[in-house]
Write a structure and sequence with these properties.
CATH topology of the largest domain: Rossmann fold
CATH superfamily of the largest domain: HUPs
Number of strands: 10
Low-confidence stretches: none
CATH architecture of the largest domain: 3-Layer(aba) Sandwich
Shape: globular
Largest sheet: 6 strands, mixed
Helix content: 25-40%
Length: 222
């Protein structure tokens, strides 16, 4: 039986990495490419603030083609949906039937994704859905993944958390009201090592920047 062709909607972070790892272990699916939303003005991954050359290095290390979907500096929902529809349609024409995401428990977000996919006759796949986030972050570390916190919500975490590597010490230091996977937007990450990569991606920490309520740590390719 032919495998179902899947495009992974890739953020570059730990949840994407763990979900992709699970998906690639499932013989029913063939992940054919990655799709990442990027800010055209800053030339960085939207929300995460990671430089595009690093996301390209991830794709190379994973061994999958990367499509970058560019949106404007302050993209509206209408612009994002238009660009997304164009990308989804192009992949559908190439035989893709399913798009995968690293979402864990945000019901409204999953419903929005599935409704927009269904309009085009496509389906969504959520490998991490409803798994306890404490279990997921423990699995991430135990599998040998490595990730650096590249962005935090300044209202939920202080500056000291940005730029840290996600390990057992990091997890233990999170405040009780912060989700262990940052699923409520408390923090975002860049994965640099783990079973999905042919080799680790060498990065160094750059300057920290505070912008519109969020702390970002610039990551530089080495």
């Amino acid at each position: 039986m032919p495998k179902e062709k899947v495009v992974f909607v890739w953020s570059g972070g730990k949840d994407s990495s763990l979900a992709l790892n699970r998906l690639r272990a499932d013989p029913s699916y063939e992940v054919v490419s990655l799709l990442t939303t990027c800010n055209e003005h800053f030339q960085r991954v939207s929300m995460h603030g990671v430089r595009l050359d690093l996301i390209e290095r991830q794709a190379d290390a994973i061994g999958l083609p990367l499509e970058k979907m560019f949106v404007s500096e302050r993209s509206s929902n209408e612009e994002y949906l238009r660009k997304l529809t164009e990308a989804l349609t192009a992949h559908k024409e190439r035989g893709v039937t399913t798009f995968a995401f690293g979402d864990i428990f945000l019901e409204d977000l999953r419903r929005w994704r599935e409704e927009n996919l269904a309009r085009l006759g496509l389906s969504g796949l959520f490998p991490l859905w409803k798994v306890d986030t404490r279990e997921l972050i423990a699995e991430f570390v135990s599998l040998g993944f490595g990730a650096i916190v590249c962005c935090i919500d300044g209202a939920r975490l202080d500056e000291s958390f940005v730029g840290r590597t996600i390990d057992e010490a990091f997890i233990a230091s999170l405040p009780a009201d912060v989700d262990p996977c940052g699923e409520n937007g408390e923090f975002h990450s860049f994965a640099f090592a783990g079973p999905i990569f042919k080799a680790p991606i060498a990065v160094s920490l750059g300057e920290k920047v505070y912008r519109e309520g969020f702390w970002f740590c610039d990551l530089l390719a080495m």
